[in-house]
Amino acid sequence: MRVTMAALRQDGEVEAIMEMSEKQIEALGFTEHSRRHAGIVSKWSGELLRALGKDEERIRLAEIAGYLHDIGNCINRKDHAQTGAILSYKILTRMGMSPVSAAEIMMAIGNHDEQYGQPVSDISSALIIADKADVHKSRVKNPIQDIYSANIHDRVNLAAERSFVKVEEGGAVIALHIDIDTAICSVMDYFEIYFGRMQLCRKAAEFLGCRFSLVINGVALL
């Protein structure tokens, strides 16, 4: 059975798990990992593969992986990629997806986190880049009394006015563009917490046959 994004969004089990994931992330004080983030990562994962000329089936699987990638947060933030991968496989096969396609998504989700993840397929590579590209002030949920005493993760996201990822130079480059308010957060602050993530994005872009570029405030830094 062909599982669509529309069916996934309307599935009661998916909705319940995503709601619980949001509750746990809020309770822990992390940046937003809700349906907003899931929707953006889903969209960007598909757009990356489409821009690189992948077929519609790979694009569909990447979109599904993007939507489900953080559902492991309903169990625990620690090892959420691995638990989310297993949950996703169970959900998708229950919905009628073939074991092979569900396993492709499971593998991608299990590899999206920088602690243990590696680009091991076109789907996992697109997911890694799309996930790390979503940096934005709307993701900060902690009440901020003083920007300068806020934790560095919140300050980096608060400073991010816009971020997007696109394929450039005729398919040779995958570029992450971020506009940062440097009065809130310096470029060095961004690198302090995102350097490992950018290294993983570089590996993911290389897996897709591209070079990774990071552009902050219009200046190419990688």
What is the total tally of β strands?
4
Q: Look up the CATH topology.
A: Hypothetical protein af1432
Beta-strand level of the residues, as a percent range? Answer: 5-15%
Helical fraction equals 40-55%
The topology string of helices and strands comes to HHHHHHHHEEHEE
End-to-end separation in angstroms reads 42 Å
The strand line-up of the biggest sheet is: 1-2-3-4
Please compute the radius of gyration using only Cα atoms.
17 Å
H/I helix tally: 9
CATH class term: Mainly Alpha
Biggest sheet, in brief? 4 strands, mixed
CATH superfamily: Hypothetical protein af1432
Q: Give the integer mean of the pLDDT values.
A: 90
Q: What is the CATH architecture assignment?
A: Orthogonal Bundle
Morphology: globular
Total number of domains: 1
- Structural class of the secondary elements? alpha+beta
Uncertain spans: none
